[in-house]
Amino acid sequence: MSQISVLGAGAFGTALAISLARSGRNITLWARSSEAADAMQVTRENERRLPGKAFPESITATADLRMACEAPVLLLTVPMQQLAEFCATNKTLIQHKTLVCCCKGVDLKSERGPLAVLEDTLPEADIAILSGPSFAVDIADGLPTALTLAGRHQDTVDRLQALLTTNNIRLYSSLDPLGVEFGGALKNVIAIACGLAIGAGLGESARAALMTRGFAEMQRLALRLGADPATLSGLSGFGDLVLTCTSKKSRNYSHGLKIGSDVAIDPAVTVEGVATAQAVTHLSQGLGIDMPITTAVTQILNGQISISEAAEVLLARPLKRE
Ligand SMILES: NC(=O)C1=CN([C@@H]2O[C@H](COP(=O)(O)OP(=O)(O)OC[C@H]3O[C@@H](n4cnc5c(N)ncnc54)[C@H](O)[C@@H]3O)[C@@H](O)[C@H]2O)C=CC1
Ligand SMILES: O=C(CO)COP(=O)(O)O
């Protein structure tokens, strides 16, 4: 039996599996398609989602979820908008496990993050959130990074910090899972905003302003939701914001960049910030929290305003103290 199973064989799940396996853990990597699982077992790579990154021997790829869920610790790496349904459908298999959620987003239907989704569906599970600056391809290449592992209980967090730290991933712990998950989710929306701005030729000063004021609105919402805004100054928040707002490796940033420069987008690519922008715009309006950049991203993505109109609206807002 594996120590850890990774549920969801996308780019990130595969990269985490590789890093953990290289650091001596036995890993089961679960894919929902048996063709995909069989191909990974034979070729020892995930040709579709993370090509060219060889699997260590200690990874077993399978489509047998029952077998994968024999491991005591399960990493959830399905996209955010699939998380609630995945957990509800497979409740009996995962409800008594330690679950580490690795997805970054806000559920469009409930307008809540992964913690609330998991706690509602699986009240008996031990839940943690893993987030921070980490491109799948970098992790799989063995490049170093640092992430935050957060949970409500010190003992869970301590145990997982030791178990999931690898040769190239240094884990910091936190007891503010809400702050950590919202840092990871909200930065995706700001990354789209930055991509839109750069794509439309608004310049790097505009990007820096969007990152800074975007960070302010991320903290505002997190505070209102009960998180510690200081958590967002850490790896999952500031750290991930810097990474995704400045790199073409980010799918969220690239999505904005393509729209801003009129390049066709690939609908098969996971861009978490699109649904999260919609969810957070609606959520923040209901809560009376001012999130002008997130709102502008939603309006641009919905075709309600152009990028130049959004820039005019943002510049014309009433003047205020920083
Ligand atoms: N790719 C990256 O560099 C990073 C991604 N993440 C987060 O990880 C999450 C997953 O992203 P990626 O792995 O990159 O996405 P991906 O697009 O590479 O893969 C998503 C995978 O989920 C599977 N899937 C979709 N719906 C499913 C369902 N209902 N049941 C089972 N499997 C399902 C797909 O078949 C696919 O293999 C996202 O929330 C993302 O924000 C976090 C850090 C880095
Ligand atoms: O979250 C990520 C890096 O930390 C990956 O960002 P993208 O989903 O925008 O590619």
UniProtKB/TrEMBL annotation:
Primary location group: cytoplasm
The EC code for this enzyme is 1.1.1.94
Binding-site list for NAD(+)? G8, A9, G10, A11, F12, G13, A136, R251
The record's keywords, sorted A to Z, are:
Cytoplasm, Lipid biosynthesis, Lipid metabolism, NAD, NADP, Nucleotide-binding, Oxidoreductase, Phospholipid biosynthesis, Phospholipid metabolism
Where does the record place the catalytic residues?
Answer: K187
Q: Name one GO biological process term.
A: phospholipid biosynthetic process
Q: Where does substrate bind?
A: K104, R251, N252
User: Which InterPro entries does this one have?
Assistant: 6-PGluconate_DH-like_C_sf (IPR008927), 6PGD_dom2 (IPR013328), G3P_DH_NAD-dep (IPR006168), G3P_DH_NAD-dep_C (IPR006109), G3P_DH_NAD-dep_N (IPR011128), NAD(P)-bd_dom_sf (IPR036291)
User: Record's HAMAP family?
Assistant: NAD_Glyc3P_dehydrog (MF_00394)
Protein name, per record = Glycerol-3-phosphate dehydrogenase [NAD(P)+]
Give the organism the record lists: Celeribacter persicus
